[in-house]
Write a structure and sequence with these properties.
Protein name: Pitrilysin family protein
Radius of gyration: 24 Å
Low-confidence stretches: 1-21
Number of strands: 13
CATH architecture of the largest domain: 2-Layer Sandwich
Pfam family, one: Peptidase_M16_C
CATH topology of the largest domain: Cytochrome Bc1 Complex, Chain A, domain 1
InterPro entries: Metalloenz_LuxS/M16, MPP/UQCRC_Complex, Pept_M16_N, Peptidase_M16_C
CATH class of the largest domain: Alpha Beta
Organism: Chitinimonas viridis
Helix content: 40-55%
Largest sheet: 7 strands, mixed
Keywords: Signal
Oligomer: single chain
Strand content: 15-25%
Distance between the termini: 56 Å
Mean pLDDT: 93
Number of helices: 18
Structural class: alpha+beta
Length: 465
């Protein structure tokens, strides 16, 4: 049986390697309209569908003191325009079985749609109109704000939904990358319809935006439609300056203890500074992280779930932004097992230095990563998302086209160098969400303890102990 499993694993590894070595980013055309709008067009005729992304550099990093403004604006764009009401928009897309949605991140906001090739003439003009001229109707805005505030309250009932917001605030402090994308109860309550309109007017502009279209169309025809629908988009004044990098605060080990009085579990993560999305080491670091916590058979999941039964899952990963990013190990455990789970998680993490990654383990991770890579970009929507990322973060085709080569070239010796360079070894930053009274002594073992109650507004510590 063992021989059979080994043989099958070898076949899977070979299949993954072959598939990845053949994968390259499909050909696409780019253009820049006279108004500064960037256009990405990728023809794919395998299915009669078209995926569209209109992405702008208008994320939560620009919220200033109005946390949640970018996110609410991105949702508010979907409330319609003067020409197309929300009801008309919903009816048009629903009737045709099409999808439209939106959202925001730290550095971008986006409207995304997918529809049949034959519906382009009807639905693309509607999408273009709401992006450029949203009306933010007062009655719809009130409902959206109330719903968003309710969702934030509900999210805090599940620590796994909000722990990364606490982590970002701990690491970035008042830096723009620490802005809570979802906002806070008090900040959302103060937002007005006019705030959304002003944010849209300032930051949704052609010279800091891109239209990405992937699917069943002819490039010349689609470019003509984009020019017709978006060529009249105008920006007011000069483009906003690029925001300075948010420095990560990790000069000493700290623990943010988030009290959830009724918690029966402790949810935790720890780590520190990571990498930017365009870092040249981005690809090999995915391989190393796969060994540590990026798959079911990773060190962390094996130790905390399979071998010890302390949790149902454990993992690790990088969160990347334009100028820097963070790294974190994360898991959760029953309240009485908090001390054991944290000790085992931190000990397992330190294996990166105490034991390192041997050649056999590295080869297994390489095969896994290469096998998982092509399915990430199978659909038009996935490819449109990738092109949107490339626009926002500024990395090129080589990160995709040289993926397999970069994975294959990673050696155990190079892995050790990258571990020392990019993984935070000490002065770790930790967030614990659970019953503070029970876990406070445990938290104190890992650094200076800051505390906040989960019911408190926002995600910043209010007191130190």
């Amino acid at each position: 049986m063992m021989l059979k499993k080994t043989f099958l694993a070898g076949l899977i590894a070979l299949a993954g390697s072959a598939l990845a070595s053949e994968f390259r980013l499909p050909a696409y055309a780019t253009a820049k309209l006279p108004n500064g709008l960037n256009v990405y067009l990728m023809e794919r005729h395998d299915v009669p569908l078209v995926a569209v992304r209109v992405i702008s550099r208008a994320g939560g990093a620009l919220d200033g003191t109005q946390a949640g403004l970018a996110n609410l604006t991105a949702d508010g764009v979907l409330l319609g325009s003067k020409k197309y009401s929300k009801q008309a928009l919903d009816d048009a897309f629903d009737f045709r079985g099409a999808d439209i949605g939106g959202g925001s991140g730290v550095e971008f906001s986006m409207v995304a749609a997918s529809f049949a090739r034959d519906d382009v003439a009807t639905l693309l003009p509607m999408l273009a109109d709401i992006v450029q001229q949203p009306s933010f109707p007062e009655h719809e805005f009130g409902k959206l704000r109330a719903r968003t505030m309710d969702e934030l309250k509900q999210a805090k009932e599940s620590p796994r939904n909000v722990i990364r917001s606490y982590y970002a605030k701990l690491l970035y402090g008042e830096g723009v990358y620490g802005n809570p994308i979802e906002g806070t109860g008090s900040s959302l309550a103060k937002l007005k319809r006019s705030d959304l309109a002003a944010f849209h007017r300032r930051y949704y502009r052609p010279d800091t935006s891109a239209v990405v279209v992937v699917g069943d169309f002819k490039t010349a025809e689609m470019r003509g439609q984009i020019e017709k629908l978006f060529g009249g988009w105008r920006a007011e004044g000069a483009a906003p300056a690029v925001l300075p990098a948010s420095p990560i605060q990790a000069s000493k080990a700290r623990v943010l203890l988030v009290n959830k009085e009724d918690a029966r579990e402790t949810t935790f993560l720890f780590g520190g500074a990571g990498i930017s999305r365009g870092d040249p080491d981005y690809v090999p670091l995915q391989v190393i992280n796969t060994v540590l916590g990026g798959r079911f058979t990773s060190w962390l999941n094996d130790e905390l779930r399979v071998n010890s039964g302390l949790t149902y899952g454990a993992g690790s990963g990088f969160t990347t932004y334009g100028q820097n990013g963070t790294f974190a190990v994360s898991s959760f455990t029953a309240l009485p097992k908090t001390e054991a789970a944290l000790a085992l998680a931190t000990e397992t993490y330190q294996r990166l230095w105490t034991r390192g990654i041997d050649a056999e383990t590295l080869e297994s991770a390489k095969a896994y990563v290469k096998g998982q890579f092509p399915p990430r970009y199978e659909t038009g929507a996935q490819l449109a998302g990738l092109l949107g990322e490339m626009f926002i973060y500024g990395f090129g085709d080589e990160q995709v086209n040289q993926f397999s080569q970069k994975v294959d070239s990673l050696t155990p010796e190079q892995a050790r160098v990258l571990i020392d360079k990019h993984f935070p070894k000490d002065k770790l930053q930790m967030v614990l969400v659970g019953k503070a009274e029970a876990i406070r002594p445990i938290a104190a073992k890992y650094g200076e303890v800051l505390e906040v109650d989960i019911k408190a507004d926002g995600f910043a510590a209010k007191a130190a102990r």
